[in-house]
Amino acid sequence: MTDAASDDPDAFATRLVTLETWPDLERLFGLPGGSIVRGCWCMHYRLTGPRPPDAEPKREMHELVASGVVPGLIGYLDGAPVAWISLGPRPEYLRLRRSSVMKPADDAPVWSVVCSYVAKPYRGRGLQHALLAAAVEHARASGATILEAYPVDKADRSHDDFMFFGSRSLYERAGFTEVVRRSPTRLVMRLTLT
Fold first, then answer.
1. pTM of the entire structure?
2. How many Cβ atoms sit within 10 Å of the Cβ of residue 25?
3. What is the pLDDT along the chain (194 residues), one digit of tens a residue?
4. CB-based contacts of 22: which residues, under 8 Å, 6+ apart?
5. Is residue 122 classed as helix, strand or coil in its secondary structure?
6. Beta strand residue intervals within the chain, DSSP E
7. What's the rounded Cα separation, in Å, for the pair 129 and 171?
């Protein structure tokens, strides 16, 4: 794989996170701007309760992938890993149940998007939109009927590193609509996939 980037949107592709693509996820999380994802390896919302002092989120994510769970998609630009989106059936994200902002709006069987990340050198190219479109198709192909997200909605700009939930405008552009707002700056949005 090459580290060369391209402005050609046709050069963007996604692959499921599996043991085969695991080295690409490691490489992606090591790129500039990856301190947030490196810190939790998107395990924070999958686990609940006290964590042992020796907990290693990277190892836990690897074990999850080794068990056959597909925790998300890796986005590639010209063959190099540049983006990541974590999604799956809501029951896999145990911590969402206890969140005052992201707790279930109803009993509908939904899939959740809990993290969307583009490495710093590749931001500003619209890759988040392409990544979300691929996630929508993956969820649909996997049998999901509703995809849910928990974006940030505020007037002033947040630092890019803290936008892992994405922005309201990202999801609106993809057809998501607001379901409930339990915080001035956070909301629950859904897209019906059937």
1. 0.90
2. 24
3. 323 344 555 589 999 999 999 999 999 999 988 888 888 899 989 988 777 778 899 999 999 999 999 999 999 999 999 999 999 999 999 999 989 999 999 999 999 999 999 999 999 999 999 999 999 999 999 999 999 999 998 877 665 555 788 889 999 999 999 999 999 989 999 999 98
4. 62, 65
5. helix
6. 12-16, 72-77, 80-89, 111-118, 146-149, 177-183, 186-192
7. 9
- Under 8 Å between Cβ of 84 and 115: yes
d(CA 133, CA 170): 10
Nearest to 19 by CA among 78, 67, 60: 67
Cα–Cα distance for residue pair 164/162, rounded to 1 Å: 6
Instruction: Please state, in angstroms and rounded to a whole number, the distance separating the CA atoms of residues 11 and 78.
Output: 5
Spatial distance between the Cα atoms of 107 and 38, rounded to a whole number of angstroms: 32
Amino acid at 4: A
Helical spans, DSSP H, in the chain: 22-29, 35-40, 57-66, 127-141, 168-173
Check if the beta carbon of residue 190 is closer than 8 Å to that of residue 169: no
Whether residue 84 contacts residue 5, with contact meaning beta carbons closer than 8 Å, is answered with no
CATH architecture of 10-192: 3-Layer(aba) Sandwich (3.40)
